[in-house]
């Protein structure tokens, strides 16, 4: 249609005319020749599309940025479009709004972006080594396997959830877990709860590095004790608990 248009630079305003007593507007698109028989279907579709989009207001033609309600361009909406993801698709609240040590929050941020040096990411850097998980000595090491679905990790998640008296199905990805975990008990009662994913992941990563670089394994009880002690220390440092001992702290979790 464009190739046979009479005026290829015509504006919307110039392509609208008025007709009848009500002075109603209609599209007046002109071509340099009549349509051929094989062009009729395409031409009819073009005119029907125009007819369904009659501009309701009379104003000068202008450029409008479709990614913003006000039609004005900004770099944020353009960047989000280039990334092809909505602006709220990252679980930042479950990372940066949690009362955790900053280095831990930064590490969790790297985890959520799949940027920590697990086996699969190391192989992308052309490193060659045995493809297994040091924690369970079975599957290949990926972020989601190591931190969520490994037998050792899953056992720690289960024990932590049991401490809160919660039944939970672990999602397929850590990214999804952070979305579902945030403020599960409500805004005022979830301050310690929101710490749990960061604490578990931090403890798993430290245990993974101990086994990898120091050849030292913790038992299941020692692993859970390390998690419980870390969670207690963080909670006490930020004033999230009034418990003065680890046993009383663990007992208080089921009352949230």
Can you walk through the features of this model?
By secondary structure, the chain is mainly α. It folds into two domains: 2-51, no CATH class; 93-253, no CATH class. Helices cover 45% and strands 3% of the residues. It contains eleven helices and two strands. It has helices at 40-51, 75-83, 93-96, 102-112, 119-124, 143-149, 151-163, 174-181, 196-214, 220-237, 246-253, and strands spanning 16-19, 24-27. The chain has a two-stranded antiparallel sheet. α4 crosses α9 (196-214) and α7 (151-163) packs across α10 (220-237). The mean pLDDT is 87. InterPro entries: RVT-Znf (IPR026960). This is Reverse transcriptase zinc-binding domain-containing protein. It comes from Lithocarpus litseifolius.
Helices and strands in order, then pairings?
Layout: E1 16-19, E2 24-27, H1 40-51, H2 75-83, H3 93-96, H4 102-112, H5 119-124, H6 143-149, H7 151-163, H8 174-181, H9 196-214, H10 220-237, H11 246-253
Antiparallel strand pairs: 1-2
Helix pairs in contact: 4-9, 6-7, 7-10, 9-10
Protein name: Reverse transcriptase zinc-binding domain-containing protein
Domain Reverse transcriptase zinc-binding: 73-157
Brief rundown of the structure:
With 256 residues, the chain is mainly alpha-helical. It has helices at 40-51, 75-83, 93-96, 102-112, 119-124, 143-149, 151-163, 174-181, 196-214, 220-237, 246-253, and strands spanning 16-19, 24-27.
């Amino acid at each position: 249609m464009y190739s046979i248009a009479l005026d290829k630079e015509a504006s919307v305003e110039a392509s609208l005319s008025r007709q009848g007593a009500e002075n109603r507007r209609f599209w007046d698109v002109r071509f340099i020749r009549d349509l051929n028989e094989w062009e009729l279907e395409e031409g009819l579709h073009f005119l029907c599309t125009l007819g369904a989009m009659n501009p309701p207001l009379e104003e000068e033609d202008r450029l409008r940025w479709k990614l913003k309600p006000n039609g004005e361009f900004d770099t944020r909406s353009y960047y989000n479009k280039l990334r092809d993801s909505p602006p709220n698709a990252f679980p930042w609240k479950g990372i940066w709004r949690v009362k955790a040590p900053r280095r831990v929050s930064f590490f969790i941020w790297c985890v959520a972006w799949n940027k920590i040096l697990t086996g699969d990411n190391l192989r992308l850097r052309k490193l060659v080594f045995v493809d297994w998980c040091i924690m369970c000595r079975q599957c290949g090491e990926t972020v989601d396997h190591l931190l969520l679905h490994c037998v050792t990790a899953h056992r720690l998640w289960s024990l932590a959830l049991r401490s809160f008296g919660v039944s939970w199905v672990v999602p397929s990805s850590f990214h999804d877990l952070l979305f579902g975990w945030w403020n599960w008990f409500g805004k005022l009662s979830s301050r310690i709860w929101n710490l749990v994913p960061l604490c578990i992941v931090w403890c798993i990563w430290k245990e993974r590095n101990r086994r990898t670089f120091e050849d030292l394994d913790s038992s299941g009880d020692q692993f859970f004790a390390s998690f419980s002690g870390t969670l207690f220390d963080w909670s006490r440092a930020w004033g999230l608990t009034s418990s003065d001992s680890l046993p009383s702290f663990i007992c208080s979790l089921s009352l949230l």
